[in-house]
Every structure is written in structure tokens, then in C-alpha cells.
Amino acid sequence: MYKWVIIGGGVQGCCVARRLLQEKAGNEDLLIIDPFPGPMHVWQTLTKKIGMSHLRSPSVHHLDIDPYSLSKYSKGHDFAQPFRGKYARPQLDLFNRHSLDVMDEVNLEESWKQGTVNGMTKGHNHWNISLEGGAEVQSERVVLAVGVNHIPYYPEWANKKEMPVSHVFDMQTPVPDEGRVIVVGGGMTAAHLAHTLSNKNGISSVYLVKRHPFRVEDFDSDPGWLGPKFLKGYEKLTCYDQRRRVIHQARHKGSITRELHVQLKRQMRASRLDIHTGEVEKAVTVENGVGLQLKDGNLVSADSIVLATGAETCLPGKAWMEPLIEQVGLPCAPCGFPVVSTTLEWKNGLYVAGALAELEIGPAARNIAGARKSAERIVTSA
């Protein structure tokens, strides 16, 4: 039996695991279960796929405990211009290398198990975790750090069987490397992808189709949500419907940074990128390709369509988590998400991180800063 099992090996799960291994557990005591072969696989695959060069978050947000660890690391590893802009946004390669080295310090991969969880039950003094293929793992404590990007959102008009439509969140499908491409979406993922494709040899035309005007914001939520400025009032809210409304209003969903906005406009002026704003009415077959008929009457045609429309809005791990909620009587808010203690304990040694912790952590729960907060609360309370 393990002392700790972490379900999910993305940024959230690895941040918690790294701190547990440093302060509370040995490698033989902890197991990380994830569908992919190594730590932060989805993060690394997706950021490479869209051509991200720098993170949106500042240099103090990373997997190590010392907030200045990434800055110190950059000086010791000869990175040219490791940070960009007034918020010191780190190079993606710098962040990834630092993350892997920080995890190597505690031999995190020794605690890795590739597998997909399909069930979980409560034992007498432990938790039983079932995996696809029939394996079962037992642990005294469990951290649910399940990601939110595993179920891509396909709009109703996106008929995958009849149209050359793919989704950037589909880890198995590469982005096109030739021809004319339509990118659908208005947030950071879509903007990065459109910018990257517009610079790629072999791509003849790139069209970015988005529902709303660009929403330019430095971060995905105000930095005040990382401290008492906003959290003090938030924590006084006892109604979870109110908390959910506050989270929804605080998140700058579908926004992009000022820097990326400038880059997109530069590509437009250079005639490497066309941007269309409007609702898609339907996808249609056109001569030598596929088209998007917009509700304003415009038709955008290309050889392929790549969706950057985010993930389905639902409880992460819903298929196997809902039976667990019912069996154990786990408290949930009206939105279906966990109601947890300030230490992020749901019940009897079951903890949450990431999106599952957002009703306690607040609007920043899903990002790197939220991962650091979750790790601190779980580890210091255990």
C-alpha cells in the first residue's frame, strides 16, 4: 500500500508530487498515475504543437518552492534572453528544462506509473484505485490532479466524419504543415497556433476565425487573486453559487496577451494572416477544400480546419468520479465541483488540486500559480 497516490501527472500533479517527495515521502511511498509515458506530457506536447515561445505567467511561477529558483537557474545555464517583458515571462524551453531538473532532484519518474484510472472506492482506512486492464492500487491518501483538456470541445457544426477538422487538444493528431489552414478560436491557444502557422514554410494561407473581438489581458485573471487583495473577500463567501459566479467573472476567458496581439497584427500587415470575427453558421464543402459559412454572410475556405475551442465544460474525471461521489457521499457544490476544506481535503485523506480545487483556491487554481498554492496547502497540512 502506498502512502500517497496522485492521479494526474500534468503541471498540477507534478508540482504536488515534487513537494511531497522533498518534504513528506520517499519514492517508495508515492505513486503518480497518468495515461501518458512521462511527466507533463500534455503540457509539453500542446505547447510544442502550437509553437509557444514564452509562458504567459511570470518568472516566479514554476514547480520549485523558492520563487526565484527559475531566475537563478537561467543564470547558471546560459540562456540568452531567458525572460521577456516587464513581467519577466520565461522562455518555454527554460521553464521545461527547469521543471524536469527540479523533478529529477527528487527522482520523480521512479514514482511514475502509466495507466488510466477507471474507478475508485473507499476501503476501511485506504482508497482502492482501479486501472484499465484490471490492475488495482491501494493508498492511504490520494490527490486528484486530473486535467481539464482531455475532452476537446467540438462545436455542433464540426462534423469530423465528413470534414477535414481536427482539434489541437487531440494529442494524436498533428497540425497541418501545408496548404491553407483555418484556425478557430479566440484565446491564447488559437492565437499562438495561428501565429506559428503563418510563419511556417509550406503553409500558403492562414485564417483565424473567432467569435468575439480580441480580449487583451496580461494574465488569465487579475494578479490580485493570488493574494489577500481579492481572496480575503472571496473566502468569506459561504454560498458556492456565488463563488462560482465570482470565478466566472474573474477569469479572462478567451483573452490573449498584448504581446501576442501585436504579433498577430504584424502578420496581418505582412499579409501572412487573415482574421475574421463572427459566429460560424455551418461548415460546407467547397471546391478543393472546406469552408466556414459565417452568420454575417462571409465564407472562409481552406484545405483544413484546426479547432482551438477549448475543452468540454464538465467535472474532470467525471465518468469514474461521479460513482465515487455517490458511494462516499463527497460534498459538491451545485456546479458539481468539490466542496473541500482549506487544506483541500475532500474527505478522509482524499485531496484535490487544479480545477477540482478552484472553489477553494479561486480563479487562479488551474494555472501554475494555483498548482503552487495547492501543493503548499496539501503538503503543509498532511
Automatic annotation (TrEMBL):
Protein name as catalogued: FAD/NAD(P)-binding protein
Organism of this sequence: Halobacillus kuroshimensis
Domain FAD/NAD(P)-binding: 2-359
Domain of life, source organism: Bacteria
Alphabetical list of SUPFAM superfamilies matching this protein: FAD/NAD(P)-binding domain
Annotated signal sequence range: none
Pfam family, one: Pyr_redox_2
